[in-house]
Amino acid sequence: MNENEISYKIRGAIFKVFGQLGPGLLESVYTAALQYELEKENLNVLKEVPVPVYYQNQKLEIGFRLDLLVDQKVIIEIKSVENLAEVHHKQVITYLKLTNLKLAILVNFNVSNISAGIFRKVNGL
User: Tens digit of pLDDT for each residue in 28-51?
Assistant: First the structure.
């Protein structure tokens, strides 16, 4: 399955989770529910995947964790905030660059219309 096919399934799962739970819960709730829905679709979903950071070929003793990684191809960054800030969008682009992946989905579940809370981010490589 390619990134676009995975993305389609992710979007469907996001709508299911939002339809069931609505806005206003903690990110951890949406993460668990989304992982469950995606695994029901027979996708391989890893949670809190560590991403190492290198500086001048030196691995730093610090890193980031991806909320969800689907089929080793698509990152999902989950938020439940009043408003997404520009830094949230930049964070996801940086995750794509650090992992050399092509596609990420940034989703904010704390919205009245979930369509307005889903953002596709593409790594220009």
Answer: 999 999 999 999 999 999 999 999
